[in-house]
Amino acid sequence: MAGSPKITRIETFLAPPRWLFVRVETDDGVVGWGEPVVEGRAEPVRAAVAVLAEHLLGQDPARIEDHWQVMTKGGFYRGGPVLSSAVAGLDQALWDIKGKRCGLPVHQLLGGPVRDRVRAYAWVGGDEPAEIRDALAAQIEAGFTAVKMNGCGRMSPLATRAEVRACLRRAETAREVLGDERDFALDFHGRLSPSNARRLLPLLAEYAPLFAEEPVLPEQVEALPGLVGASGVPLALGERLYTRREFLAPLQAGVAVVQPDVSHAGGISELRRIAALAETYGAHLAPHCPLGPVALAASLQVAFTTPNFLIQEQSLGIHYHRGAELLDYVVDSAPFRFDRGALLRTDRPGLGVEVDEAAVRAADAAGGHTWRNPVWRYEDGAFAEW
């Protein structure tokens, strides 16, 4: 279309603690930001963004859905976390540009808000019960009404009684400190074998966790119907699923909460479709987001407009942060101020976050980061899930 703006420049920036930002600029000076990253694999995602940029340069940024279709389906070989995350960050940036050009927040472009507040939870680690007690008390003092913690550490393929009791003590401690009016969730990171999950989940029910996250690995989807039937604890998963198609089998198995990540699962465009799919199964959306400010801002735009939204993850003070914090790369922290454990809706255009471009450029110029997740092993030297 004659006279339409065109994308003229796409840049990426590695920034501590483990983030990757993308900047998309048009020929009339409008800039959109996104966060395309796989934790521990930022460099391959950066390369994938460069390949996808070949399609976007010279194109009209307003054609978001068409660009999404081409970026996800235009290659004969499709899918996977690296490509999907590259698409996700670029999709965020295109929505940011559209909102800024229209002078509207993205949630207005998605149909308008259905809520004014987005409840969020804080991380409290979870490795030592004594430390948990103090960390929980600190989050209560900060005004949060929900927390999440690791459900276990390294777990034997068939858990010992001591390992089971250690998990239960975490839950018991959380319930004692939080009382009955606040919530806690347990994240197992796929560390439980299906047999361990069948043993442990029924024992956790008396502590009424908000949900148990990734009790088994995402590829063990065949175990989910039995786990859903074995316990009244709601099951959650989805941070390692990247398309709505991958969420279909877990939803059919009865998973209660889906947790797609806006920086992994195809961006805002696919996140809202996953949420709609979950709604048809009576499931709730709790977006995964232990990442940076652009990813959180994009997640919030979906949360404000999603009827079946439950709760939002956010990374303020999370244990993964080394060398930078959530708000170190934003000009104004106002969109991320908490009110009684919730983030408030704003009408700032686009994603609603102003990135500190100078800080991002400086972080990348200083070497960015090479964050990698730990590799765990059992006592016999064999690989263990982290």
Automatic annotation (TrEMBL):
InterPro entries: DgoD-like, Enolase-like_C_sf, Enolase-like_N, Enolase_C-like, Mandel_Rmase/mucon_lact_enz_CS, Mandelate_racemase_C, Mandelate_racemase_N_dom. Residues 129-234 form the Mandelate racemase/muconate lactonizing enzyme C-terminal domain. SMART domains: MR_MLE. One of its GO terms (molecular function) is galactonate dehydratase activity. Keywords: Lyase. It is an enzyme of class 4 (lyase). Its EC number is 4.2.1.6. It comes from the Bacteria. It holds the Pfam family MR_MLE_N. This is Galactonate dehydratase. The gene is dgoD.
